[in-house]
Amino acid sequence: MERKVPIGLSNKHIHVSQADLEVLFGKGYQLTPMKDLSQPGQFAAEEKVDVVGPKSTIKGIRILGPVRPQTQLEVSIGDGFCLGIKAPLRNSGDIADTPGVKVVGPVGEVEIPCGAIVAARHIHMSPEEGAAFGLKDKDIVSVQLDGPRGLILNNVLVRVHPEFKLDMHLDVEEGNAAGARNGQMATIL
Amino acid sequence: MERKVPIGLSNKHIHVSQADLEVLFGKGYQLTPMKDLSQPGQFAAEEKVDVVGPKSTIKGIRILGPVRPQTQLEVSIGDGFCLGIKAPLRNSGDIADTPGVKVVGPVGEVEIPCGAIVAARHIHMSPEEGAAFGLKDKDIVSVQLDGPRGLILNNVLVRVHPEFKLDMHLDVEEGNAAGARNGQMATIL
After folding, report:
1. Are residues B128 and B35 in the same domain?
2. Contact B172/A120, CB-based, under 8 Å?
3. Cβ of B28: how many Cβ atoms within 10 Å?
4. How would DSSP label each residue in A16-27?
5. Do residue B160 and residue B113 come from a single domain?
6. Is the pLDDT of residue B1 over 90?
7. Is B4 within the bounds of a domain?
8. Whole-number pLDDT of residue A110
9. EC number(s) per UniProt (chains A, B) (predicted)?
10. Confidence at residue A144, expressed as pLDDT on a 0 to 100 scale
11. Residue ranges of E strands in A2-139
12. pLDDT of residue B62
């Protein structure tokens, strides 16, 4: 069986804690869902913030909801270069010893002591999808993307969870390196 | 024999014709070499220009010398998105039916009717290096880059010429997708 997976490209974005959200947008503030994302319950919010690094500010970075226990900024290596930070390659949630930045909202601002990462590429799938593919949580696979800029990505982490749905998350630089579009199908080798 | 090749990462840059150079910088102007590039005779110039697209301007794009028959802007897909142009994937020199932009220098400005491309990845090598690798001009190879973001690039064009020296040219997005650094070694498979 060919194991096909859709590609989801992630532009720079930020996840925020409820505490930080309230500093940025006001006491008791709730995110406003704008658009559902591929993973059930996850959404792009209407709200955006500015992120200030030592070298520059990137304006209008979108918040993805719902709120999380920790604020986490996900950027490309190129975005990190612009900001003047060296965000390391990490799996989501693993933010110990990562650079901090200043986050500016319409009501207030927060200096996060850490939280800026380059998200490691990964594939979300449900246990049923994992079983059909012969894959389990934390497996590492290689994935082929076709086209004029065709390539094979090694070291792709498989994440299996009942709340996940089949989707491979790449950042914009990975997507552009492959000339890939959102929703294009790739093949797990 | 393992076929190892150093990686050279190209940021956005522009090649200019002598005629356009003189409009941008003044009659009889000559480029000022700042730094030699990997290919013999090629150099990064002191001179920079601003490039104006329909959506935004990118300031301070470096000119690479020497002058060429045609002005050619090389950007990443992300740069093209910023400028608001859809620069296609092309080999250097193949600029028919590509987007134009406005180029602004300290003395004048030029509307180039075409010339904006995303450079297709390629490996420069001398005939001797080609012979040692069992490769000839226009061969297409796959190249492996190791590391946490390790990947295999397919569709890499081999360019063999007496004035070339072994170096694989990737753009910044391809380099970042692999977590690669300038000068890192890759393996032709």
Report:
1. no
2. no
3. 8
4. --HHHHHHHH-T
5. no
6. no
7. no
8. 98
9. 2.3.1.222
10. 98
11. 3-10, 13-15, 33-36, 43-52, 57-65, 72-74, 89-90, 101-104, 109-112, 116-119, 122-125
12. 98
Task: Note the pLDDT tens digit of each residue in A50-68.
Answer: 999 999 999 999 999 999 9
**In a shared domain, residues B93 and B166:** no
A18: exposed, middle or buried (Cβ count in 10 Å: 0-12, 13-18, 19+): middle
Domain containing A89: what range?
12-119
Model ipTM value: 0.94
What is the identity of the amino acid at B73? Answer: L
Instruction: List, for residues B32-84, the tens digit of each pLDDT value.
Output: 999 999 999 999 999 999 999 999 999 999 999 999 999 999 999 999 999 99
Interface test with A, best of B154, B157, B181 (most A CBs within 10 A): B154
A80 and A25 within one domain = yes
Q: Looking at the structure, tell me whether residues B107 and B50 fall in a common domain.
A: yes
Q: What is the CATH number of the domain that holds A167?
A: 2.40.40.20
Closest CA to A9 of A172, A187, A136: A172
Residue A1 has pLDDT above 80, yes or no: no
Query: Best residue in B10, B173, B181, B189 to probe A by mutation, most A CBs within 10 Å?
Result: B173
Sequence length of chain B is 189
Given B68, B93, B119, the domain boundary residue is B119
Which chain A residues are Cβ-neighbours of B148 within 8 angstroms?
A: 89, 120, 155
**Domain boundary at B93, B119, B145, which?**
B119
Asked whether residue A85 is domain-assigned, the answer is: yes
| Residue-averaged pLDDT of chain A | 97
Q: Count up the domains in chain A and report the number.
A: 2
Whether pLDDT at A104 is above 90: yes
- The rounded distance, in Å, linking the Cα atoms of B73 and B24 is 15
Q: Which helix (H) or strand (E) holds B41?
A: none
According to DSSP, the residues that pair with B43 across neighbouring strands are: B36, B65
Cβ of A176 and B76 within 8 Å? Answer: yes
